[in-house]
Amino acid sequence: MSLTPHGAAGIIAPVSQPREHDMTTPPEVEQRLREFAETYGRIRGEVRRVIVGHADVVEGVLLCLLAEGHAILEGVPGIGKTMLVRTLAEALDLVFRRIQFTPDLMPADITGTNVIVEMPGGRRDWEFRPGPVFGNLVLADEINRATPKTQSAMLEAMQERSVTVAGTTRRLDEPFFVLATQNPLEMEGTYPLPEAQLDRFLVKLLMTMPERDEISEIVDRTTGRDVPRAQRVADGPMLLAMRDLVREVPVASHVRDYASALVLATHPERETASPMAAKYLRYGAGPRAAQAMVLGGKVLARVGGRYNVAFDDLRRMSRPALRHRIILNFEGEAEGIGPDTIIDDVLEHVPEPGNAE
Fold first, then answer.
1. What is the enclosing helix (H) or strand (E) of 117?
2. Which of 73, 85, 224, 313 could form a disulfide with 297 if both were Cys (CB 3.0 to 4.6 A apart)?
C-alpha cells in the first residue's frame, strides 16, 4: 500500500519549486541541506540494495526515524520486516534488538531486571541486567500477541525514552526507534493494541506481498553464496544532527491550519466532517495525527530540498498518519470500508486555506 494517495509519484518527490526568498539562503544553510539530502539518499540506497521492493515502506521508516517517532508495520509473515530493520541498523551503525512478543512474555523480559551477583570478598549485591529495549533500533515483532501489561511496558519506553525497574529510572540511548509489527491474518489469541496506545505510533505502514519479479529477485539474492549486507554510511550522531535540522523547518500558519482541518474532518459528529467520515466513522483522529503530518512534512521538505512545509507534504502524510487513528463504526466494518478510502474522501472534502469555494 503506497504512502502517497491518488497515485502520487513518490513520497520524497519535490512538490514545488523553491520560492524567490529561497534563492537568498546563506551558503552554510544550503550546504547543510545538501548534506542532509545526500546522506538520506545514501542511507536509502544502501537499504534498498538489500531490501527488494517495498520502496514506499523503506522511505516511510526512514521518514519516521528522522521525525523522531515510532512506526507500526502491518504485513503477513516472511516479507522482510526483520530484514528491513536489521539492514537499517547496519547502514546507520546502530544497535539492533529484536523482541518476539508472545503471550508468556513478561515486562521484565523487555525492560530488564535486577539480579544478585557475587562480589569480591564474598559479598552479594544487586546488579541491573538491561533487557532488549536497550537498543537503538528495536523490532517489536507481533506486538499484539503479548498481554496488555507487557505491551504497556514497551509503550512506556517509547513514550518516555526511559524505563523504571525497582524504582530506578534509566534513560534509553538515543536514537531510539521502535518498529512494531502486526500480522493482519492470524488474530486468534491476540491482544489488539487499544486505540490510545496505537495513537503513540507516528505512522502505520502497510507491507504488501511483492510482485512476481520482486519475488524472483528475493530468491536470487537470498539463496546464493553471497547474501548482500548493508554497509555503514552514517552513524547515530549524524542521525541526531539530521533530526535537529528537520525540527528547524518552518511551518506557515495556513499550513498548520490545513493539518488541523484534515484531522477535524475525520470527526463524524462535527459539521466539517467529510461525507464518508460522517457515515462510517465512530471516532476521529486526535491532535497527534496533526503532529505526525507536520513532522513528516518537515522531513519531506528537507529531503526534497525545500525550506518550508507544503500542502502536498501533509497530503502525502495523511494515510500513514491517520489510518491507525480513525475508528470505523458498525456500518463501516460491515461494508468493509478501508481507512484509506475514508482518508481520501477527507482529502477531497477539505479545501486548502485560501481555496475554499
1. strand 112-118
2. 313
C-alpha closest to that of 130 among 93, 71, 172, 160? 172
Q: What is the DSSP letter of 271?
A: T
The answer to whether 332 and 284 have CB atoms below 8 angstroms apart is no
pLDDT over 70 percentage in the chain: 91
182: left (phi over 0), alpha (psi -120 to 50) or beta: beta
pTM, 2 dp? 0.84
Instruction: Tell me the pLDDT of the chain averaged across its residues.
Output: 85
> What crossing angle do the helices spanning 55-66 and 236-247 adopt, rounded to 10°?
80
Q: How much of the chain is helix, strand and coil, in % rounded to 5? A: 50, 15, 40
Please give the pLDDT value at position 205: 92
d(CA 114, CA 126): 6
Contact 300, 254 (CB under 8 A): no
Residue with cell 497515485: 7
67 and 298 in contact (C-beta within 8 Å)?
yes
* Separation between Cα atoms, residue 67 and residue 33, nearest integer Å: 16
CB neighbourhood size of 150 (10 A): 24
Residues 85/179, Cβ–Cβ less than 8 Å: yes
Identify the top-confidence range among 149-153, 215-219, 260-264. 260-264
